[in-house]
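Example record for the data management plan.
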Amino acid sequence: MKNKTLIILLIILLIAPAAQASFFSDIAGEFLQFLGIIKITKANHLDSDRNLVSDIYEEVKALDGIWSEAISDGEYVRITFEKKLTSSNDITVYPRIVSGNPKIEIYEAGEEEIIAEFVSLDSNQYNKVYLTNLVGEQDTFDLKIMEGSVEFDHIIDPEPVCVAGTCTVTFTSTNLSWGVPAGVTTITGLAVGGGGGGCRSTSAGGGGAGGDLRIKTSIGVTPGQSLVIMVGTGGAAAATSARSGGYSSISNNSVINATTTLLLAAGGGGGTEAANATNNGTSTPLNGGVTGGTGGEGGNGASNSDCGGGGGAGGWYGRGGAGGNSGDNNGADSTGGGGGGGGGSGTGSAVCGGGGGVGIVAAGNNGTGGAYGAPAASPGTNGSLGNNGVGSAGGLYGGGGGGDDNNAGAQAGANGAVVITYLQPDSIYPTFSGYWDNNATLVDSGIALFNATIENANGTAWITINGVNYTATNFTTNRYNVSVTLTGGTYTYNWSAYGNGTQHNLNLSRSAGYYTVNTSSSCAYSGPGNWALNCADNCVFSSTTTIANYDNVTITGIGALNFSSGGKWSFTGSNQYVTIASGCTLNVEPGGGWNY
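Corresponding structural encoding:
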């Protein structure tokens, strides 16, 4: 009998919104709330023939520690979302490999063509794949696990599909690429390094340092350019000297140097038994265009059977709080950074050092150091974010891990993060069609009427006549009109409107002419005899005018002569001429003009 590889699966499938509010203005409550999340409505375990095994929706609808039943190699989980997805969406998984070299194939429900594939998986970090080969829209997908066993902690699409306005992309996976959208030439980058791991020891263990944080508000980019995103993983807890947190960076390529790296945040150093842990390397220097803070030092575990707290991550404009040293010591507060985790004492029940607080907050949110306490020293807090650590773990994104004195309980530092914010240009412009006016119907003066169809307008439109603006009335969904009193003369006009996109783009129509009929005698031929016409009278001819033999026509002045359909001059002789001044325009409709 063939052995089957088993999979323990916990899935939370969330797809990022079509538009997402600015990261820097809408952080409140828990860190990084996603707006308009597309949630799953169904989740079924299917066998290798895609027959229903069981309904696992209740187990996988939320990240709550409730695991689904075991799923065998070659079987599926069919997920249905509350809205349809497109090829612009991605699916990101946070797996833990149990055995083998697993991969995940993604299909449309019931189909045999792979639309995306995780060809390999990295444990304990986010892995992302775009639904590149998805044609059209789909709300139901089959996830097939192959060639190994794996556990999932999270499946999500954290990257927004942003059409226009302020867009935010958050990365929590290592070694990703991000294509600069069309029309985008400047981005704001935020990077926080991974927190250092706590030290575990049978005697004393120090906390890891918090990761540095850096923000650069104006990074020049090229549309279509591929940026390399590296997110520092939190340092693992370890004996003697724990592991340092990794760098987080935005770069032109995978080489970290002064030329190609656009923004760099160092990770926190790993905890040791005695010394206070500091950061792991050098971040982008702070200057007029770069702000941020250094991660707080990890608390030391110098006293026997005691442990230190993890340092808080660097903040928007200040250093993270230091973790409390061993013994009954609180973590340090910070101005603009994550608060340090409280120190711990080995007396009584084993008390671990607290994890450092979160560092990614807007200016004005100051971290409060965690207080010493039992059975676990509390993690540092941060302004509006509240208590962001769990037990002794580093706070979300960059907090250092707490140390421990029992050779088992020290915690890893938190992973770092990279956040890119940019303004996606609005490409929606109003369009004009269906022009109508009552041109050449007014005699000397009267009410001129203008209509036009305007699509993609936000309701604000106007007409400009000889440099003067007149507000248009929107009397149907997309039909606009203007009524204005004009006296005799020649006019040029055009329509203008603002678009209904996020930036309300302005667009102008083509220019057109408008004329009123002047009752001057120059418009009427009174021959026989030569005819002297003043073009400034803007004469309109709508019927045939017969000009006697030997009579010539001389046109002077600046303006226009208008020949409507059927409006003609008929010359009866064979030796007649017409002289037209250079400033006179002839507007001739089909069926108008003159005959020789």
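Summary line stored alongside the record: The helical segments are 57-60.
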